[in-house]
């Protein structure tokens, strides 16, 4: 309602002011209208239930899952991922960490889940879990650790993957996301080689996609980036996707997370 | 059984703004699956809202309403502590009803 009155006020201004309203303003306005009823909330509620539900062959919940802040601590975990985990000897993002917890605590088959198409079966549950876990850190600032040598190595790896050109169109992530002010049609593209700001780029995913009516985690988002570049799919929770997340996440240091956001 | 709705009802003055988020596929019946077969229509066709048991809103919806619909409306004369109940029925006969307290 607030937004409608603002639109009405704008219409009364002289023509010059209206002409200054950019496409980006209109999109921001559209997002603000949508954000009021972001269906990601439906996924959040489902995710919270899933976290507490006893499931899998071991009939256990995820409540003892260590997301990096100690067993069962969810608040604040999201803005510090991906990070190094001593028990798996790997740098893991939220989704690969959840796979670990689902297999060790609940006895579910992590490999089978990784092979499940997005939005189906356990992958649909994954969407809900990432929605809730990210929402628990909403408003906090991104602060990925870069202490462990493996975390620094993943940053360098992610940087290389980000600038690696290839495929039939000779694209890299940096082709679109390496400079300020680029856009595809009316869509502004964040410059992910530096901090693009609060609630933009890395700090805005996972998000509810209005066009597909589904909640996309970072893994699915990156998978789609590879599709758009006409690269082969990188594989769920593969090292390159985690490395890219480290690169973008470290670059976004200090940005406020609004995840799960809403996207067109 | 359908997933629960999220209902928020906030009083301001002598009015309450109600915001409802419903979980529903809202399949239009116009789309085709990967095999080329039409996906059958499945959408909410009746919505109603009640304040303390008294119906204050009824709506007929169709296949053009988006997936996971969001509905916002204002109830006159609602005050904090009142109960707002929202229900829907879809074209397959599935029903869902949820309640929230005006705050």
Automatic annotation (TrEMBL), chain A:
The coenzyme or cofactor needed here is:
heme
Its GO CC terms? Answer: cytochrome complex; periplasmic space
Q: Which residues bind heme c 1?
A: 65, 101
Signal peptide per UniProt:
1-19
Instruction: Give yes or no: UniProt keyword rRNA-binding.
Output: no
Q: What is its EC number?
A: 2.8.5.2
Domain Cytochrome c residues, every copy? 46-142
Q: Which GO terms describe its molecular function?
A: electron transfer activity; heme binding; metal ion binding; oxidoreductase activity, acting on a sulfur group of donors, cytochrome as acceptor; transferase activity
Q: What class of enzyme is it?
A: transferase
Q: Name the protein family.
A: Belongs to the SoxA family.
Give the quaternary structure: Heterodimer of SoxA and SoxX.
> What is the protein's name according to its record?
SoxAX cytochrome complex subunit A
Q: What is the lineage of its organism?
A: Bacteria, Pseudomonadati, Pseudomonadota, Betaproteobacteria, Burkholderiales
Q: Which gene encodes it?
A: soxA
Automatic annotation (TrEMBL), chain B:
- Name all Sulphur oxidation protein SoxZ domain ranges: 7-100
From which domain of life does this come?
Answer: Bacteria
Q: Where is the signal peptide?
A: none
A Pfam family this chain is assigned to = SoxZ
Q: Which InterPro entries match?
A: Ig-like_fold, Ig_E-set, SoxZ, SoxZ_dom
**What's this protein's name?**
Thiosulfate oxidation carrier complex protein SoxZ
Q: Which organism is it from?
A: Paucibacter sediminis
User: What taxonomic ancestry is recorded?
Assistant: Bacteria, Pseudomonadati, Pseudomonadota, Betaproteobacteria, Burkholderiales
């Amino acid at each position: 309602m607030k937004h409608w009155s603002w639109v009405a006020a704008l219409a009364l201004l002289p023509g010059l002011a209206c002409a200054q309203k950019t496409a980006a303003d209109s999109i921001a306005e559209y997002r603000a209208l949508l954000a009021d009823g972001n269906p990601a909330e439906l996924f959040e509620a489902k995710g919270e239930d899933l976290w507490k539900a006893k499931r899998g062959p071991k009939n256990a919940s995820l409540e003892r899952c260590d997301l990096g802040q100690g067993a069962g601590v969810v608040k604040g975990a999201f803005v510090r991922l991906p990070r190094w985990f001593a028990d798996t000897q790997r740098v893991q993002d939220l989704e690969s960490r959840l796979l670990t917890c689902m297999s060790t605590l609940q006895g579910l088959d992590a490999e089978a889940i990784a092979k499940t198409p997005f939005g189906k079966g356990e992958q649909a549950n994954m969407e809900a879990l990432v929605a809730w876990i990210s929402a628990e850190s909403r408003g906090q600032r991104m602060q990925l650790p870069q202490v462990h040598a493996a975390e620094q190595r993943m940053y360098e790896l992610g940087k290389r993957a980000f600038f690696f050109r290839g495929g039939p169109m000779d694209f890299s992530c940096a082709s679109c996301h390496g400079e300020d002010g680029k856009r595809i049609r009316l869509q502004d593209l964040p410059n992910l080689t530096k901090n693009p700001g609060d609630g933009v780029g890395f700090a805005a995913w996972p998000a509810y996609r209005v066009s597909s009516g589904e909640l996309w985690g970072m893994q699915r988002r990156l998978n789609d980036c590879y599709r758009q570049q006409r690269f082969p799919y990188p594989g769920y929770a593969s090292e390159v996707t985690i490395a890219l997340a480290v690169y973008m996440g470290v670059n976004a240091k200090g940005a406020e997370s609004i995840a799960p956001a809403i996207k067109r | 059984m359908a997933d629960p709705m999220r209902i928020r009802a906030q009083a301001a003055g002598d009015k309450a703004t109600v915001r409802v988020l419903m979980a529903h596929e809202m399949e239009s019946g116009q789309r085709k699956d990967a095999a080329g077969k039409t996906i059958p229509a499945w959408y909410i066709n009746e919505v109603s809202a009640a304040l303390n048991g008294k119906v204050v809103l009824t709506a007929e919806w169709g296949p053009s309403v988006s997936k996971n619909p969001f509905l916002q409306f204002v109830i006159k004369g609602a005050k904090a502590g009142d109960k707002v109940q929202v229900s829907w029925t879809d074209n397959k006969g599935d029903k869902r009803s949820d309640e929230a307290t005006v705050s």
